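step: validate -> pass
step: tokenize input -> pass
step: predict -> running
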Amino acid sequence: MGSFFRKWWRLLVAVAFLVAAVQLLVRPSAALERTGPARGVGAAVFRPFYIAVDFLRQGGSGIWNRYIALVGASRENERLRKEVAALQEKIHETRDAVLENRRLKDLLRYSETLERRTVGARVVGHDVSPWFQAIFLGSGSEAGVEPGMSVVTPHGAVGRIHKAYPGLSEVLLVTDGRFAADVMVERSRVRAVAEGIGGNFCRLKYVSPVHDVAVGDRIVFSGFDGTMPKGVLLGTVVSVDRPKESLFQKVKVQCAVNFLDVEEVLVILTRPTIPFRAGRD
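step: predict -> pass
step: emit ->
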């Protein structure tokens, strides 16, 4: 302990004098009240110390206040982020409702042009099998849906009812290999048989090389076989091949409807004019 005081006694004495001076100047005794000049000299001597202490005090207070403000701002930002997320979700819901309302209005207007009894149905699923092309509707036999009935949208044909159950029905898409229907070229009135080949395509069978079919021609249903109302759009010709060794042209048609995007359809509640025989699975 003695060695500590011997080493640091000068610093301890200076600190003691400094503390005593500060105390005397801050809380002076009655005797010092009468020594105005001495007190003024002391104030002048210790003024830099006062300024430094006050600066540190104000700086610490400012840092603390800024910290409290940052904490409050962080909480406010988190609250605002949650409000923004909730508003964005509401905007998405409103946008979906607007788009659905627009699609339903288009279906209603289109149903009025068909001059047949129809029922709207919502797509509730897709066949995941790589061999078959089908979708499922949330309406079935309870709504009057029967096998063989046509399924359409304002953009074109979708397919026909393959099977109907209470609350559910299966639609065989026009791109399925089991689908075939009588069609014709809208421009030249050339008739053919459309058959599904998968993907989003069909092919036209029995088109003679002398028949006028060109890329870009619109293919519509003739209505002669009763599988689809006359004039309903199937799609557009995307390729025509005229091989010399074949008796018929090879015509490929891209369907007008993107079946992956279909959400609502119309089922035409009219039995086919030609008896329909449901295919086997």
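step: describe -> Confidence is low (pLDDT under 50) at residues 27-33.
step: cleanup -> pass
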